[in-house]
Amino acid sequence: MTAEEPPPAVRAASGAQDDPVRDEGPPPAVRAASDAQSDPVRDEGPPPAVRAASDAQSDPVRDEGPPPAVRAAFGAQGDPVRLAGGKGGTWRVGDVVLKPSEGDEEVRWRSEVLAALPESPHFRIARPVRAAGGDWLAGGWEAARAVAGQPDHRRVDDVIRTGIAFHEAVAAVPRPALLDTRDDPWEYGSKLAFGDHLPPGRRRPSALLDRLIEDRRPIRTPGQIVHGDLLGNVLFADGLPPAVIDWPAYWRPVAWASAVAAVDAMVWHGAGAGVIKRWAHLPEWGQMLIRAAIYRLGTWDAAGWPQEPEEPYRPVVTEIVGFAAGQTRSSQVT
């Protein structure tokens, strides 16, 4: 169940809180701003502060919850309980979590992949629930089994390890055609980060983005299908492997997905620069960090959220640029 969310700062601005089964989304600052907590079945979205600012408007579909016919189609029994976070549209009914689809093609593709994924001792997933008619959608809603756990943004190293295990499990999944036509702020940020073709004129002036793009260098690491918003979408529960939820799919290097989690943790959750050094063995790590920061800042811009969070990003960008330059010099010497 995915659908990128705003960053913490944006969530905060709109008063939105994280949803347990979702989050490749907004940056922690926005999440923090809204004091949002991740929800196991939530979407990838803008940062919390942004969510807050943008998600404050009432939506009848989200506000009223899944209709009885939808609940029946997914075999969900019990009273609907609205889950905090995301865009306010995620509901739990018994052991089933339901939310409105934000892209039917991606819902069906993702559900097929997750339904076929073998159990792993290293991570859990929120298994999709098929509707009575055989589809993964009913009345414009999707569903997944509820999973135990809560996100813990302080455990960035465990999040990265879990992401690596998840990405090993999906490494053979072919690139879905839906990625060729997806058009949203997160896709824009991803394309900006990797220097893909973009329509002109969408960027606001940004000294931080200019600095990062200036220091971007070509990479050789191949891409595969990855989870683009890990930090708030890995849930921890005592005695269980971490659970990976709300999967926003991208075709990028695995190390980039790890870098996004690292950047989010540093910018919004007080993780020190040590996380950069601890994962320096990952392929082209400095360049992945640069692309992760461009992705987040570029998404912020394209989404039209309030002025980019220059203050929390500036010291992190300085650390990243310095580390990447050092790696470049080392590679030139060797």
What would you say this structure looks like, in words?
With 334 residues, the protein is α+β, with helices and mostly antiparallel strands. It has a domain at 156-333: Aminoglycoside 3'-phosphotransferase, Chain: A, domain 2. It is 42% helix and 11% strand. The chain has helices at 8-14, 28-33, 48-54, 60-64, 68-73, 104-116, 156-169, 185-194, 207-214, 254-268, 274-278, 285-303, 310-333; strands spanning 21-22, 41-42, 81-82, 91-93, 96-100, 124-125, 141-145, 150-151, 224-227, 234-236, 243-244, 249-252. The longest helix is centred in the C-terminal third of the chain and has 24 residues, at 310-333. It is globular, with a radius of gyration of 19 Å.
Write a compact overview of the structure shown.
With 334 residues, this protein is α+β, with helices and mostly antiparallel strands.
List the helices and strands and how they pair.
Elements: H1 8-14, E1 21-22, H2 28-33, E2 41-42, H3 48-54, H4 60-64, H5 68-73, E3 81-82, E4 91-93, E5 96-100, H6 104-116, E6 124-125, E7 141-145, E8 150-151, H7 156-169, H8 185-194, H9 207-214, E9 224-227, E10 234-236, E11 243-244, E12 249-252, H10 254-268, H11 274-278, H12 285-303, H13 310-333
Parallel strand pairs: 1-2, 6-11
Antiparallel strand pairs: 3-4, 4-5, 5-7, 8-10, 9-12, 10-11
Helix pairs in contact: 1-3, 7-10, 8-12, 9-12, 10-12, 10-13, 12-13
